[in-house]
Amino acid sequence: MHVAQFIEDGFNLAKWYERKPCVLLQELYLRRVFFELLNHIADPLVNQSYRQQCFEQLHKPLLALKRFYKKQHRSMAPFYRLEREARIISHEFNPFN
Predict the structure, then answer these.
(1) Whole domain around residue 85: which residue ranges?
(2) Segment 62-95, tens digit of pLDDT
(3) What angle do CA 90, 93, 95 make, to 5 degrees?
(4) How far is residue 51's CA from residue 43's CA, in Å, rounded to a whole number?
(5) How many domains does the chain have?
(6) Total-model pTM
(7) b/e per residue 23-57 (b: at least 16 CB within 10 A)
(8) Coil, strand or helix: which one is 55?
């Protein structure tokens, strides 16, 4: 529940900054949600069930960032870097193993 609420709050802030044409802050909040989930997945001191929730919800900020980069940038390179990092972290620190 806490993970879903954190993601929702981050998305709400990003949407708010989208309405005020402030692209940098919109990207900041989307990336912050993404990296916060990645950090919790990789942290062995975080409770296993919380890490699993973060792992299961990681697709949400990743898809939001994909939409953002398609809309705002000509290049998808920043998204591909994030996607690659998510793949590496989720493979190395899979909480379901």
Answers:
(1) 2-92
(2) 999 999 999 987 789 999 999 999 999 989 998 8
(3) 95
(4) 8
(5) 1
(6) 0.90
(7) eeebbebbbebbebbbebbbeeeeeeeebebbbeb
(8) helix
Contact 69, 78 (CB under 8 A): yes
Give a yes or no: residue 30 inside a domain.
yes
Q: How far is CA 15 from the centre of its chain?
A: 15
The answer to whether 43 and 33 have CB atoms below 8 angstroms apart is: no
Confirm if 52 and 95 have CB atoms less than 8 A apart. Answer: yes
- Residue type for position 42: A
**Residue 97 falls inside a structural domain:** no
Nearest to 58 by CA among 33, 81, 75: 33
Other beta carbons less than 10 A from residue 64's beta carbon: 21
Q: Residue 21: helix, strand or coil by DSSP?
A: coil
Contacts of 33 (CB under 8 A, 6+ apart): 6, 7, 10, 11, 61, 64
